[in-house]
Amino acid sequence: MRGVFFRKERNGVTLFVRLTPKSAKDAVEGVEATDDGRAHLKARVRAVPEDGKANAALEKLLAQWLGVAARDVSIGAGATSRLKQVKISGDPEALASKLARLGSPDE
């Protein structure tokens, strides 16, 4: 069974993201499922993982990808890990609908 890469919350959604820093480009590359059935949104940023630079770049990238204000995107957990939980503030139904369209898993 394939997992989902986000969870609806009361005031938005939480994205499960696998971040690769020091990449050649900033990009969201789709959804990746792990062997244990969990799913993560794969993202790459050019920034280095020092002083929160890669996290800030991820927040900016996701805000642009989702078409939301940068202030509505924040790292909720995993600040020093490749696997992160990113909080997106807003209407949970609208965000979930947008995420389902943008990152629909293939298979």
Automatic annotation (TrEMBL):
The lineage of its organism: Bacteria, Pseudomonadati, Pseudomonadota, Alphaproteobacteria, Hyphomicrobiales. Belongs to the UPF0235 family. This is UPF0235 protein C5750_12710. PANTHER family: UPF0235 PROTEIN C15ORF40. GO terms for cellular component: cytoplasm. Pfam families: DUF167. Gene3D superfamilies: YggU-like (3.30.1200.10). InterPro entries: DUF167, YggU-like_sf.
